[in-house]
Amino acid sequence: MPQAPGSSRVPESVPNVCVVTHPLSSAGENATRSLLDILGALTTAALVTADLPVDSEIRDRHEVVELTRRGAGDSVPVAAGRFLLNQLRMCRELARRDEEVVVFFGATAYLLPITFARLRGMTVLLQPRGDVPLTLRLSWEQRVPAPVARLLAGSVRALERAGYAVADGAITYTPSMASELGLDPDAPDVYPNGARYVRTDEFQPRVPFGDRERRVGFLGRLDEEKSVRELARVAQRLPDGVSFSFIGDGDLRGRLETELATEIDSGRVEMRGWVDHDEVPAELSRLRLLVMPSQPTEGLPTTILEALACGTPVYATPVSGVPDVVREGETGFLMESREPSDIAMGIKVALARDDLGDVSHRGRSLIESEYSFEAAVERYRDILTAT
């Protein structure tokens, strides 16, 4: 990283910031740490959160106020109760804060503290990480009847819309993400190029693209949200000479190993398992194509940015902010269908392109110019000084 997060000068023109989140999973902790790294290069940034992982590096870099060690809750009634209680705790904490700006990161439906912060005269910015109501609906449909799940998710979406109306502004990763969330990327109170970065000194090609085997793959959690079951059927349909790597772990790993036993034995499929983050660049650099048929719940998957930084073209569903980064035929390819046979054909067509090496180069160049740490810091400087 160009400079240690949180250790740079504090320009007078950039206000101090308090970041507020809902209970954090490991993925949420990573995204929050990245945001705080950016803010820490500009100003003093504190975090108000719940259930922060014990070993989180955030504790060593920034002031952290942890409202509770409890997560969101497994059952719907428990989640609803903790949702309300955490909002009251947030209001109590915000009453003690003296930061000029509050960024609700992912906590876009927390209407009580959003309103309270506005009434206190703080500048309130909402930064979604993805489509939270849709994510909740998909999760709740596994536990309650679908009509009930839709009703509950609709209530969360109504709270979120009210939050956007009350807040001073909204930050999204890309213009496409803003549009998909129902926000106008051209509106004066929407900042559609929010800071997101990749450590370009760590994530860079480890293997020259021309030297890579005809190997494609997926990196992430092996669960339903990532459409891993469909990818298993894709792996069975690939042409001779093309292999598929599943990099990661999750609930569906055992099922994949059983379903793909023949392909694993023949070497056409490999299960790499969980890898440490410092090993990810090497794993991505083994691939000629990263395949990401995600559900429309994510804002902009970090894995896509990291793959492009490693010179690995991406073949992904055109959801949320993805089309602004995976540019058809330029830095990668967009799926027109999530049917396994169609995805497999798309992989075959992409690997046959004579200019795939150029696509690799353009992906790396995009990350260097728009998604480096320095570029992210400058984007957030513009946002904070404009509010």
From TrEMBL:
GO molecular function: glycosyltransferase activity
Highest taxon in the source lineage: Archaea
Residues annotated as transmembrane: none
Matching Gene3D superfamilies: Glycogen Phosphorylase B
Keywords (A to Z) from UniProt: Transferase
Pfam families the record matches: Glyco_trans_1_4
Protein name, entry field: Glycosyltransferase family 1 protein
Organism: Haloglomus irregulare
